[in-house]
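Fold description:
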Amino acid sequence: MSRKEPDDRAVQDVKSALDLLRQKFVARFPGRVATLDALLGRARTGDAEALADAIQAAHKLRGTAGTFGQPAIGELAGAAEDALTRCRDQADDDARWDAAEATMETLRERARALAADAS
C-alpha cells in the first residue's frame, strides 16, 4: 500500500497555521509572564494555591514554548518551574524564593525583548 504525499497547498496551509500560532504565542507571552509574576508574589506571602498555580503555569509555558519555536523561553520557564517546585518543597527558605525571583526577572527581560522586537 503506497502512502500519498501531501500536496504543496496542504503543506503550505499547515505552515501558515503554525506561523500564526507562533505569532499568537509571542504576543501572549508578556501576559503569561505577568500572570506568573503575580502568582509568585502571592505565593511568596504563603498562598499555597497561588504557588501551585504558578508551578502549573510555568510547566505549561515550558511545554508550549518549544512547540512554538521558542526553546530558550521553554528553558527559562523550566527553570522557573524547577525553582518554584523547590519553593513548594521548602517554603521557609528565603534563598529558594530569591532564586525563583531571579528566574522570573530573566523571564520578564525576555518578555520585554520580545515585545520590543514585535513593535
